[in-house]
Each structure stands twice: as structure tokens, then as C-alpha cells.
Amino acid sequence: MSQQVSESPEAAQMIRDIGDIHFINIALIILATWMAVSLVKRALPWMAERGPNRMRLWLLGAVPIFRLMATAFAVAWIIPLVFKVTVENFLVIAGAVSVAVGFAFKDYISSLIAGLVAQFERPWRAGDWVKVGSDYGEVRSVGMRAITLRTLHDDIITVPNLKLWDSNIANSNDGERTLMCVVDFYLAPHFDAQRMRAALRDVALTSAWLCYDKPIIVFVEQAEIGTHIELRCYPFEMRDQGHFISDLTVRGKEAIRALGAREATAPAAA
């Protein structure tokens, strides 16, 4: 009990007396910071719309940076007005802030650790085509916190490295210069399977995007709605996989019709 009594004055000394806190100055600092941030939020986008195109992204990107710097400056200015900044108090405040920051940035720290692990396990490399969750694209850059993917739709997606802990990573080429593309066909029964396999193989062999050093596989299996045929082959250039798949799909359908076969349709829902 005596220990608690002796510690309470020390805890109270961290905060200045009410009469010593300049609330007007604190209010003016907050108001000035809010006005500066509001001014920049309006001025920089206005300048970006009317300035050179090469400066537009730079000006727009400067808005959140200025807001963060202004907020940090205001907090650093207000703290000495409220707290008695001594070595002991600084250590107490720094410890509390460290716990709060560590909790708030736990995902960020987890991403950094995952990024370090990824440097050794190498689930992805720059230039690989990977699928993380529902996102599929080419790895454009590998950072310590995240990787960026460029999708087939030319979108840029930032994927945090912490996905390494809880997601399956599908790497389509794993450092190789090409990858397998798969085109699916579903056919109704009653067709010549041997002729169909040969025709689809010819479709792949005559594609302008084919890599001739890799095998062509025509896989056939029975499915609920008909016969499932997979045409598996490799494009010469990985970035052409969209053109390659489109070409195989269009000409594959033509080959199916030329042999008198029909594509299967899903049964109507009851």
C-alpha cells in the first residue's frame, strides 16, 4: 500500500498542472494544422489538374505525405505543452507508444517478416506469373512489405507479403521463361475422340504464339455435362498468354464444328 502511495505522485508529475497547460495554444496549433492540411488538399489537386502531366501524380501523392508530416509536427509540438518531458517520463511514454504502435502495425511487421522469409523460400520472383488468392498477374516488383502484380487486364495490384502465411501461392512458371496455358472444351457425346484430339493438336501447332520446345497435351475425361477436353500447351512469350488462349479457343471451336461435334450445355436447373 505504501508503494502505491509513493508511486502516484510520480505518475501525476508526468502531466502538467491544469493551470500550466496552455489550452489556447493547443487549440491554435490544432486549428492551424487543420487549416494547412485543408489548404494543401485543395491546392495540390487544383495544381495537378492544371499543371504538366508528368507532375500530376507527384502532386497528388504529396497530399497524404504532407498530412502525415503536419500531424506528426503538431503532435510533437503539443506533447511538451501537456507533459513534463524528462528522461524518466520520456521512457514511460516511449514504452506506452511502442506497445500501441506495435499493436497497430502488427500486420505491417508480419509482412516484413514474411518478406524476409520469401527471400529464402522464393515463392515468387520478379517476372513470375503467380496467383495469390483470387489475384493473378506478373510480379513486377518484390519489396520487403509487399509485391506488385500486373494483371492480364493491365491492373496493378499490391499484395502484402503476409499472404504468404495464410494463402496458397500458385506460381505458373517458377522462374522458367514460359508457362502452361489450358483451354477447356466441353463436348456432347457421339464424336470421334481420336480425330478430335488430332484436330485440337493441329490447332495448337498452327498458333502463332506457340512455344515449339514444350509439349502439347490434349487431355480427355468424362464429365457430368459431357466430355471434357483440355488443350494444354505453352506460349513462346508469357505476356502473350491472353492472345494465345483466345486464339486456341476461337480456332478450337471452329475445329469442333468442322468435325460435326457439338459443345455440351449445362442441364437446366430444376
Automatic annotation (TrEMBL):
Q: Which UniProt keywords apply?
A: Cell inner membrane, Cell membrane, Ion channel, Ion transport, Membrane, Transmembrane, Transmembrane helix, Transport
Which GO molecular-function terms appear in the entry? mechanosensitive monoatomic ion channel activity
Q: Signal peptide position in this chain?
A: none
* InterPro entries, alphabetized: LSM_dom_sf (IPR010920), MscS_archaea/bacteria_type (IPR045275), MscS_beta-dom_sf (IPR023408), MscS_channel_2nd (IPR006685), MscS_channel_TM-2 (IPR011014)
Which SUPFAM superfamilies does the entry link to?
Mechanosensitive channel protein MscS (YggB), transmembrane region, Sm-like ribonucleoproteins
Keyword Cell membrane tagged = yes
Any GO CC annotation of this UniProt entry: plasma membrane
Q: Where is the Mechanosensitive ion channel MscS domain?
A: 107-173
Topological relation to the membrane, as annotated = Multi-pass membrane protein
Q: Looking at the keywords, is Ion transport present?
A: yes
Record's subcellular location = Cell inner membrane; Membrane
**Name of a matching Pfam family:** MS_channel_2nd
Main location (coarse class): membrane
Q: Which residues cross the membrane?
A: 23-44, 56-79, 85-105
Q: What exactly does this protein do?
A: Mechanosensitive channel that participates in the regulation of osmotic pressure changes within the cell, opening in response to stretch forces in the membrane lipid bilayer, without the need for other proteins. Contributes to normal resistance to hypoosmotic shock. Forms an ion channel of 1.0 nanosiemens conductance with a slight preference for anions.
Q: How does it assemble?
A: Homoheptamer.
Q: Which family does it belong to?
A: Belongs to the MscS (TC 1.A.23) family.
Name the UniProt record assigns to this protein: Small-conductance mechanosensitive channel
Organism of derivation: Kushneria phyllosphaerae
